[in-house]
Write a structure and sequence with these properties.
Elements: H1 2-53, H2 58-73, H3 87-98, H4 111-157, H5 172-178, H6 184-210, H7 214-225, H8 244-286, H9 290-299, H10 317-324, H11 327-332, H12 339-362, H13 383-394
Helix pairs in contact: 1-8, 4-8, 4-13, 6-7, 6-8
């Protein structure tokens, strides 16, 4: 059933993620390990020369370096940088906390600061994720509206739609336009272009001001916008800049816009990944032995009568509870209804009643488009559900 399909999808995704991580670890190890070994050899050579030149023991020098590492964690550097915990530095820090970037260049050192961070981050991260979801909802609304307008304009050029208005036509093309939704691949392409434009513009600002190369600036943009936040490159850390206030404002705007766009892009890519996993499962299901399927059907024929097997093509959140209940088949087989079946039937009745009350309150039943599965926006939880609902609302002809 549906539960088995979800479990199979979950297990396949877990296996693919583990394999993806193993491949990534092998590639990064092959690329970065030689450089790390060379840097370690150079450091050991410099350390040996320094101890010989100044007549110091290796133990004393290592003890001094450990103390410097502790000072570095507290925000002390050899070069002059701005104070980490002045108001602007603290504001930059809380921005990295609530956005889940977490560069790591500034961390609380006191017990009180660490305790406050736990509660502050708990509420702040939840609120920011809600903001990203709402931003995604409005972004999908704008994209769907623009793409639908372009689609309508193309139909008018072909003479399918009248030029005086959208309504009043009874053609099949107009009926299909009422349920039209943009493809998930078009939305992904638009978000990719928007993220690339923001990253390029931000890199053009970081390169001359921070003194980074353009490639390093692009690298920082991805690490920051995707909320990975390694902390090897961090913007706005020098003690003084030209047009300092304007630069910090631009830095804040670019990080906010970039995080929103990359977050939305990740959610759209997750839909494409889900479609790919479903395609793989379908291919695997086609290779299953038909004899095993007939055995499974025979083992369940006393539970659900063959005449009551329902088509599961139009599965939705509203019908899952009804489809998963097999109490009708059990009662038709002449068996006495059990307490479990009684509670299940009451649950189904309650779900139907809630659906009817919701439709009565809204004044109309919610229409589900027949091609909602074709564009890839059906189903989903959290941010994916927001995208589905918004696309369903924007598909209605305005």
């Amino acid at each position: 059933g549906r539960l088995n399909a979800d479990n199979a999808r979950f297990l396949l995704l877990a296996v693919l993620i583990v394999l993806y991580m193993l491949c990534g670890a092998a590639v990064f190890s092959a690329i970065e390990l030689p450089t790390e070994r060379e840097a370690k050899e150079r450091w050991e050579e410099r350390l040996e020369n320094f101890t010989r030149r100044h007549n110091l023991s290796r133990a004393e020098l290592r003890h001094f370096l450990r103390e410097y590492e502790e000072a570095s964690v507290a925000g002390i550097r050899v070069d002059d940088i701005r104070p980490r915990w002045d108001f602007t530095g603290a504001f930059y820090f809380v921005g990295t906390v609530v956005s889940t970037i977490g560069f790591g260049m500034t961390t609380p050192a006191t017990v009180g600061g660490k305790i406050f961070l736990i509660f502050y981050g708990l509420i702040g991260c939840a609120g920011t994720i809600l903001f990203f979801n709402l931003f995604l909802e409005r972004l999908i609304t704008v994209i769907a509206y623009v793409m639908k307008s372009c689609h309508e304009r193309q139909l008018r050029r072909k003479g399918v739609l009248p030029h005086n208005g959208r309504r009043g036509s009874g053609t099949s093309e107009v009926d299909s336009l009422a349920g039209w939704k943009p493809s998930v691949y078009y939305v992904m392409l638009i978000l990719c272009v928007a993220s690339l434009i923001i990253s390029c513009c931000a890199s053009a600002m970081y390169t001359p001001i921070e003194g980074w190369s353009y490639f390093d600036s692009l690298y920082f943009c991805f690490v920051a916008f995707s909320t990975i936040g390694f902390g090897d490159l961090v913007s706005s850390q020098n003690i003084r800049y030209e047009s300092q206030g304007l630069y910090r404002f631009g830095n804040f705007v670019f990080i906010l816009m970039g995080v929103c766009c990359i977050y939305s892009l990740f959610n759209v890519i997750s839909i494409v990944i889900k479609q790919s996993i479903n395609w793989i499962l379908k291919k695997l299901a086609c290779k299953c032995c038909h004899k095993c399927q007939r055995r499974l059907f025979r083992s369940r024929r006393n539970v659900v009568m063959p005449g009551n097997v329902r088509s599961r093509r139009n599965i939705s959140i509203e019908t899952d509870v009804v489809n998963e209940s097999d109490t009708d088949g059990r009662r038709l087989s002449g068996e006495m209804i059990s307490m479990k079946d009684f509670l299940a039937s009451n649950k189904v009745s309650l779900a139907i009643m809630q659906k009817q009350l919701s439709e009565s309150a809204n004044g109309y039943p919610r229409q589900m488009s027949s091609n909602s599965k074709q564009n890839g926006f059906s189903g989903g939880v959290g941010a994916l559900a927001i995208m589905n609902n918004r696309l369903a609302e924007t598909s209605v002809d305005r």
